[in-house]
């Protein structure tokens, strides 16, 4: 049976907003978009006060860290944060699973339709297989020791085996946690459809490491017993040092970009790769107490997407809350631009744009209502309600 829903505005995302528009849905599939009083609408229409949008895409999360909500101290900087996650993440398996089920439920209710989710273990496989959310799982590789490279890639493949083969890939974790020789071997070992998602320039310490071989990461390596004698200062920021190590034809999501400069963006542009910049503003405030320089990213050639990161560094897993944070800090942003970041751009980055990310006939993108949103402006009073 076809159901009809209308609202003050319908935002299809990939086409113009429709004032007093109507969305027709059958079994979750979009079967039509109409203007008010369209004679093609032959049944009752359920009207909502607010704005109807497709389900959100959370391009970056770590579901398996959900049990660390309110555990890790905030605003310590990235290196202390990583140390805390490493020492505090191990807990009772049942407790971890319960926290993931709850986080998955909260994400779905807050209108999230798909998630790009990083893992180091297979513990989230069961939750994901039962979820209403579509997950793309990124199995992280962390490897600073040359003699462990092959083993670490094999280990990642073994973990990937537990997840949906159509929605999983293996990926380097971050430039500071992967050696040059890992990058080289990784490049040779993946196929063209393996989506890459790498933490990028989340801390200025990462740039210091690559630029001058100095800063907090050196102390961190010493503490962890990692020998970086062979690593040479590159006299340029991290992204300019490692992007060429990644295979050119694979879609690459650069996550965070908090300390990415205009020069770095020029460099990425010159490389002419399929790159999505994923911003996680609330996690940046939690860990580094700063925000990415959004104004630099506007009008660039690459897409911007949004992620929540994990509950270890966030108090919500809500894309609406990420939008509120960005709009509060950047008054020049318009909702009609950022709604793409929150939906279709993430869907494209995860290879899901044929199914979700916009209200288009033939897609099954979910239907979400934003309430208390006069003049299509995002402010603190906007609330989200899942309709379908
Ligand atoms: Zn992350």
Provide an overview of this structure:
Residues 51-372 form the Amidohydrolase-related domain. Keywords: Hydrolase. By secondary structure, the protein is α/β, with parallel strands linked by helices. The protein folds into two domains: 1-54 and 358-388, Urease, subunit C, domain 1 (Roll), CATH 2.30.40.10; 55-356, TIM Barrel (Alpha-Beta Barrel). It is built from 14 helices and 15 strands. The strands form three sheets. Strands 1, 2, 3, 4, 5, 14 and 15 form a seven-stranded mixed sheet that branches. Strands 6-7-8-9 form a four-stranded parallel sheet. α12 runs antiparallel to α13 (335-342). The longest helix has 17 residues, at 93-109. The protein is globular, with a radius of gyration of 21 Å.
Topology overview:
Layout: E1 3-10, E2 18-19, E3 22-26, E4 29-34, E5 45-53, E6 56-61, H1 78-88, H2 93-109, E7 112-119, H3 125-130, E8 134-141, H4 149-160, E9 168-172, H5 180-189, E10 196-200, H6 204-212, H7 216-224, H8 238-242, E11 252-256, H9 262-271, E12 275-279, H10 281-287, H11 294-297, E13 303-306, H12 319-329, H13 335-342, H14 344-349, E14 368-371, E15 383-386
Parallel strand pairs: 1-5, 6-7, 7-8, 8-9, 10-11, 11-12, 12-13
Antiparallel strand pairs: 1-2, 1-3, 3-4, 5-14, 14-15
Helix pairs in contact: 12-13
The protein binds zinc ion.
Zinc ion binds at residues 60, 62, 118, 199, 255, 309.
């Amino acid at each position: 049976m076809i159901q009809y829903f209308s609202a003050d505005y319908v935002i299809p995302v990939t086409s113009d907003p429709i004032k007093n528009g109507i969305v027709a849905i059958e079994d979750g599939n979009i079967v039509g978009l109409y203007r008010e009083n369209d004679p093609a609408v032959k049944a009752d229409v359920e009207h909502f006060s607010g704005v109807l949008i497709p389900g959100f895409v959370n391009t970056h999360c770590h579901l398996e860290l959900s049990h660390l909500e309110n555990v890790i101290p905030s605003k310590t900087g990235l290196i202390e944060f990583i140390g805390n996650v490493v020492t505090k993440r191990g807990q009772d398996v049942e407790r971890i699973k319960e926290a993931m089920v709850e986080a998955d439920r909260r994400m779905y209710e807050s209108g999230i339709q798909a998630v790009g989710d990083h893992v180091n273990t297979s513990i989230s496989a069961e939750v994901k297989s039962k979820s209403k959310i579509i997950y793309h799982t990124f199995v992280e590789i962390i490897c600073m020791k040359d003699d462990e490279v092959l083993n670490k890639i094999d280990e990642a493949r073994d973990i990937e085996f537990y997840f949906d083969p159509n929605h999983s890939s293996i990926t380097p974790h971050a430039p500071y946690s992967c050696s040059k020789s890992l990058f080289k071997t990784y490049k040779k070992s993946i196929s063209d459809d393996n989506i890459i998602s790498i933490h990028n320039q989340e801390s200025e310490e990462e740039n210091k490491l690559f630029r001058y071989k100095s800063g907090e990461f050196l102390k961190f390596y010493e503490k962890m017993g990692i020998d970086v004698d062979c690593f040479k200062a590159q006299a340029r920021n991290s992204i300019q040092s490692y992007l060429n190590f990644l295979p050119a034809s694979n879609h690459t999501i650069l996550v965070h970009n908090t300390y990415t400069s205009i020069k770095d963006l020029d460099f990425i542009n010159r490389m002419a790769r399929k790159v999505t910049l994923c911003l996680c503003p609330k996690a940046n405030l939690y860990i580094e107490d700063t925000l990415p320089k959004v104004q630099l990213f506007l009008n660039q050639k690459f897409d911007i997407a949004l992620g929540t990161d994990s509950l270890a560094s966030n108090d919500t897993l809500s894309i609406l809350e990420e939008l509120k944070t960005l709009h509060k800090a950047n008054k020049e942003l318009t909702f009609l631009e950022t709604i793409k970041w929150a939906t279709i751009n993430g869907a494209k980055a995860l290879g899901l744009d044929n199914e979700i990310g916009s209200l288009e006939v033939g897609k099954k993108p979910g239907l979400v209502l934003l309430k208390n949103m006069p003049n299509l402006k995002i402010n603190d009073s906007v609330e989200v309600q899942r309709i379908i």
